[in-house]
Amino acid sequence: MHAMLSHPLRYRRPGRFTGWLLTFVLATTPAAAQTLAQALEQAWLLHPQAQAGSARNAQAAANIDAANGLTPGPATVSLGAVSDRFHANQGQREWEVEMAVPLWLPGQKAAQGAEAASGQAQVVAQQHALRLQLAGELRTAWWTVAAARQTRTQAQQRVDTAQALLANVQRRYRTGELARIDANLAQREVLAAQGALADSDTALLLAEQSFHALTGTAAPQQLDPEPPAVQDAPGQEHPLRAAASATLAQAQARVRSADTTRRASPELALRMVRDRGAAGQPYANTLGVKLTIPLSSEPLVRQAQSAALAELAQAQAEIDQVVRTLALDAALARRHLETTERQWKQAQERLALDTDTLQLAEKAFALGETDLTALLRARADALEAQALVGQQQVALMAARSRMHQALGVLPK
Fold first, then answer.
1. Alpha-carbon torsion 392, 393, 396, 398, what sign?
2. Using alpha carbons only, how large is the chain's radius of gyration in Å?
3. What is the pTM of this model?
4. Separation in Å, CA 1 to CA 5, 6, 396, 410
5. What value, to the nearest 5°, has the Cα angle with vertex 10 and ends 8 and 13?
6. Reduced DSSP (H G I as helix, E B as strand, rest coil) percent helix, strand, coil of the chain, to 5
7. What is the mean pLDDT of each run of 10 residues along the chain (412 residues)?
8. What count of other Cβ atoms lies within 10 Å of the Cβ of residue 240?
9. Using CA atoms, how far apart are residues 145 and 164, in angstroms rounded to an integer?
């Protein structure tokens, strides 16, 4: 029988490269945001459309550079050669070089410059509107985590009080003061509280994961509320309204650009020819200028103008709809905030009443004047009222954030 040999694993100290790698990983890991504004910055860095914003800005800047150019397009160079080598072969040669440059139509350069500038303003406005939309998603995730944490805290408190009650009931059951059914009821309350705690843990985990997916970091331990709104209605600077206005300005500029571009750009060409009639003759050079003016095509003109006018009509209808929608959203958010404030005050009044009832029920149960069922019912009412106060407090802070969102105010 052979003995089995085992070689213990040896611990190796981390090398210098491993230490550098760990330091690099820790340095590049984003820190958890502590405020709503910081969380928005982290979520913005991860947003796909935000990452393409620099490319869109570069495209808009390139359009402005093209509109400010000396010509509407690049120059062209053409080369040509003529020879009788393949039929007569008498030495006839001709070389031709032509350079053509497109020219701006009257008013076309200014119109396209205005269109490019409005396009750049539209890109910036759309980025601000996208940032506001992301802020709305973040605010929802922020207060979803807060509500889940509040529910989990209440569930843990229910478990703690249920276990304390169970210990008291079992002690009195062993001394003969209470019946076995009371011990069973107390045990059942502990199991129900533990089940509710497990459900709250799951809900909290889902809320935390949603927040992490949006920002790339965990939610902070303290979720601070936003201050009350200082304005009553959305103004002209609302990002969604500004984006709609920028789209309208872009459509108007495109209509003006279509009006000035009724034909293709004319071309001015400089032509130089070097030729000879036969072998032995000297080469002669000629220089000429050619102006090409394309004729206008009415169907193509109507096509471009109709498309621009349709875009203008749509942009005008959209900005009117945005203004109406923003006003309705602000009114609804204000009504929701007022209702939530009333519900929070009512929940506080109910908590005070149910807490007093619970204290009376506990005294009566300790004196043997009431049974455990009445105490459990009073206790359940008090816990429900306490949970409702916490939920309404979170709902009130979420309603304030909703009011900021309706007014177009970003987290600060």
1. negative
2. 39
3. 0.78
4. 13, 16, 77, 78
5. 165
6. 65, 10, 25
7. 35 42 42 84 88 83 87 89 78 87 89 90 93 95 95 93 90 86 90 95 96 93 87 87 94 90 87 82 88 81 85 92 94 94 94 93 86 86 90 94 94 89
8. 20
9. 29
